[in-house]
Amino acid sequence: MAKKPNKLKARLPRGFVDRSADDIRATDEMIGKIRAVYEQYGFDPVETPAFEYTDCLGKFLPDTDRPNAGVFSVQDDDEQWMSLRYDLTAPLARHVSENINEIQLPYRTYRAGWVFRNEKPGPGRFRQFMQFDADTVGAPGVQADAEMCMMMADTMEALGIPRGQYVIRVNNRKVLDGVLESIGLGGEENDERRLTVLRAIDKLDKFGIEGVRLLLGEGRKDDSGDFTKGAGLEASAIDTIADFVAGTGSLENEGIAELNTMAGMFKACGYGDDRIKIDPSVVRGLEYYTGPVYEAELLFDVTNEKGDVVQFGSVGGGGRYDGLVKRFTGRDVPATGFSIGVSRLMTALKNLGKLGSSDVVAPVLVTVMDGDVDALGRYQKMVQDLRSAGIRAEMYQGNWKKFGNQLKYADRRNCPVAIIQGSDERETGELQVKDLIEGKRLSEEITDNITWRESRPAQITIREADLIETVRDILDGQADDRRRQSEG
RNA sequence: GCAGACGUAGCUCAGUUGGUUAGAGCGUCGGAUUGUGGCUCCGAAGGUCGGUGGUUCGAAUCCACUCGUCUGUACCA
Asked: For a pLDDT cut of 90, what percent of chain A falls above it?
């Protein structure tokens, strides 16, 4: 027997997903709400491309063992390396620097876009995802940072997350730096250990204070038995840090002063601890942040597809990055901004029931009984009339000779209404209008096929001229039912 | 990256100490029904048993390597 030719296997690269109609509509809705807040605050949109020259994206990674790890890079035909952007901040710094003479500072801008990371994907973690950023470039004062925090809080609420179910946590890198200096970890020679300590503090949510202490000391064994090496600090140094993240340490420095200024602004604007909170354990973006850092955290439980409760953690964050533009221009251009993880946040909002199944109704289906040119023209005209009346509609485009398949198609697409006109109806100037939703309900009471077919459930005969009015009545009735159900 | 678990049809899974042509349910497609969705009945398609190599008379089953998935951890600019 001849060997079958090998079929090409259709497969998606790992860590990437195809997006469904529901997902796309929900994302559009979210982005619309976020944009409205940013616009209200006086921010303008700008868009940069997905690719940048690799050197413009910058390298903030300390480990040079894997210089290209994390990004997708390709070599252009002039042999220059380009990379897909891994966030929206570095490209903005490039854009501002390149147009620094035309851009009026302070520059208040927002943008949504796909970013790409070449790393291990996991559930809810992809190699392409959407971020929605807002930044103020050319603003040296912490009032700009405070505004960012308040805008994040407003955005959470605009998305329907109730007060108390989210919190914006704020810290300042200068505070952390001060603490580290006080335990003798100042100076360049301790860069590596400082990083390890910061990463350990960042794990507070995950492992609790005891886990963090292990990571600051000898190290910690994970659930699979693998061992993570710690920072190897002295017991007294660990105590100092533990006191600090618990908020019981005492310290005076520039970072604390900045946090106090910001706290004062939050209070003056009526943003209490239930919305924005100073939290000494916030670390974030370990390399390029230079001042205030902040992140948005969800406080409600999220259950995944398997029904497990998962820790959702941060859905966005940001901070002050005073050095990024200077890399290009040599000029001090202080900036602050934050990023919302759109895809992640959407998962959470679905859980909260804030993004229900979309309210987009499938089209009305005009079925095809006769395939001659005259008949097809009549069917298409009905479709156009429905569309002109603002009703989503389509003519069946499959094999019209199998009429049963047309209704099956309508059923599977959740079409609300089907229009039927064969030669019998045509002769009398009539139409059959079938309410498919009501028909589905009635089908539960009918068990034998003959009755089902002959009773033609939820189907009425009308004059051709009454098409629009009848369809509209049925659609309105269905919309009322949906409303009652979602309320009850 | 490190550690562990797991890979059989589109999906969920059976498959005996290594033994003939690898099965079921659901789903898909066709028919019963040339002009009516659901139900029911009948039929069909769909598998390199993740891949490669090895042990063996014989491998879905045992071994090695590899790829992939999942869990934890690391990294996350």
From this structure: 53
Maximum mean pLDDT: which of A104-113, A288-297, A343-352: A104-113
Strand B nucleotides in reach of protein CB atoms, 7 A cut-off: 1-4, 30-40, 47-48, 68-77
A123's enclosing H/E stretch is none
Within 10 angstroms of residue A430's Cβ, the number of other Cβ atoms is: 15
Q: What is the DSSP string of A65-80?
A: SSTTTBS-EEE-TTS-
Is the ipTM, as predicted for this complex, more than 0.90? no
DSSP conformation letters of A195-214: HHHHHHHHTHHHHHHHHHHH
CB A338 within 8 A of CB A316: yes
* Integer Cα distance of A471 and A487 in angstroms: 24
pLDDT of residue A445: 82
Instruction: Spell out which residues of A between 23 and 82 contact strand B, using CB within 7 Å.
Output: 58-61, 70-71
| Euclidean distance between CA atoms A183 and A185, whole angstroms | 6
pLDDT tens, position by position, A7-66:
667 777 888 888 888 888 889 999 999 999 999 999 999 999 999 998 888 764 333 334
Say how far apart CA A88 and CA A287 lie, in whole Å.
16
Q: Is the CB of A85 under 7 A from strand B?
A: no
- From start to end of A355-448, where are the E strands? 364-366, 393-395, 417-420, 430-435
Domains and CATH numbers, chain A: 21-175+250-352 (3.30.930.10), 364-487 (3.40.50.800)
**Could you tell me the distance in Å between the CA of residue A354 and the C1' of nucleotide B14?**
42
User: What does the alpha-carbon distance between residue A279 and residue A247 come to, in Å, rounded to a whole number?
Assistant: 8
